[in-house]
Amino acid sequence: MTLGLALPDLVLAAGAVEFSWLERLVETATGWVGLVIIWVYSFLIAFALPGVSEVVLIAPLDLGLGDTATTALIILVSAFGKAAGSVFAFHIGQEAKDSGWLTKKLRQSRFDILEWSERQTVKIAQKWGYVGLAAALCVPGFPDTLSIYAFSVLEEDYVKFAIATFVGSAGRLVLWLAGGRAILAFF
After folding, report:
1. In whole angstroms, what is the distance from residue 17 CA to residue 21 CA?
2. What pTM does this model have?
3. CA–CA separation, 37 and 39 (whole Å)
């Protein structure tokens, strides 16, 4: 089954829709249902939502597991959701690569995002491969949808891609927490 041109149109249109309500939902998520909300948010942020994934760390979940276990569970659920969304983006990238539609649209943009991102991503991919993708996704605060799509056009292994996005997503949240704790310890 091929996705054709309709799915990229839907994904690009979805990016234009207001999703701040979903971010607010994550920020107020409680209980075990909150983990489902975190998974959905993380899935969507991988390929369609603007913003950053660190917002999941402030979800006030009360799971009765203690702070450390709850935080670890949030990180795992979020990383799994983002990996699943990344694989979906990967599939879109494979379809776009085959159709040429996305490449043509990006090359026509006035900011020439494709050329810049291709150069940077190709350098990382050629030098570091999937380890480079995981490292790029570890950068806290940086919207990673562009990296995910750029790698999805360059690479072809779904399993390695999923593992790299899972590791990068979990690493990003761990680094964010470590940085926050380091700053708080300083004061």
Report:
1. 11
2. 0.70
3. 5
Distances (CA, A) of 80 to 40, 51, 106, 134, 148: 10, 18, 29, 14, 15
Contact between 45 and 25 under an 8 Å Cβ cutoff? The reply is no
Tens digit of each residue's pLDDT (9 = 90 or more) over 45-74: 887 766 778 889 888 888 889 989 999 999
Q: Which of 75, 88, 22, 10 is nearest to 50 (CA)?
A: 22
Tally of CA atoms within 13 A in the half-sphere of 85 that contains its CB: 24
Cα angle, residue 74 at apex, residues 30 and 29 outer, rounded to 5°: 20
Nearest to 42 by CA among 22, 63, 60: 22
Contacts of 88 (CB under 8 A, 6+ apart): 43, 46, 47
Cα–Cα distance between 13 and 7 in angstroms, integer?
Answer: 10
